[in-house]
Design goal:
This protein is α+β, with helices and mostly antiparallel strands and 159 residues long. The protein folds into two domains: 38 residues; 108 residues, no CATH class. Helix content is 56%, strand content 14%. The strands form two sheets. It has a three-stranded antiparallel β-sheet. The longest helix has 24 residues. The two termini are 27 Å apart.
């Protein structure tokens, strides 16, 4: 149902049509898309994670600030005549017990310049960092704790 609502809202925003006939066509086309997606089994069985809707907004603000800070750090490394790059590959365990939380954590690491989540398997992330300082930033666990807070999980257990 949430997919249909999202698709219809998106269609309405893009089309801007308010005539009843066109609204009906839009609703019908959204229904067909949802039906086909359901038949192809491409709809996420967890559905829309509505429990994240408002909790994630402060996390996004914090993540945007972390991205800005990481951009500045990476720019300093690149601009420096010595080019102080010290690439590191390391593994860390995600505290989130569910896949959605682990994926949010891995994607947040990848969105932050200078770090990339290379692999996620059984709750263990393999991460590449441009510098040792970037690796230390991930290993502090601040981002991991914040994702747990957004997901309502602490120390790998549901609250």
């Amino acid at each position: 149902m949430s997919l249909w609502v999202f698709l219809f809202a998106f269609w309405f925003l893009l089309s801007g049509h308010t005539e009843p006939l066109l609204l009906g066509f839009g609703a019908f086309s959204c229904t067909i898309v949802v039906y086909i997606a359901h038949r192809m089994d491409v709809i996420d069985h967890e559905g829309h994670p509505s429990h994240l809707s408002f909790k994630i907004i402060p996390y996004w603000a914090w993540l945007c600030w972390e991205i800005v800070k990481a951009n500045i750090d990476v720019a300093k490394v690149i601009i420096s005549p010595k080019l102080p790059i010290s690439p590191v590959m390391f593994k860390t365990k995600a505290s989130q017990s569910r896949e959605l939380g682990q994926v949010i954590y891995a994607n947040s690491i990848t969105l932050t310049p200078g770090t990339i989540a290379v692999d996620l398997e059984n709750g263990v992330l393999e991460i590449h960092a441009l510098t040792v300082e970037g690796a230390k930033g991930v290993l502090t666990g601040d981002m991991d704790r914040r994702v747990c807070k957004v997901k309502g999980e602490m120390e790998g257990h549901d609250e």
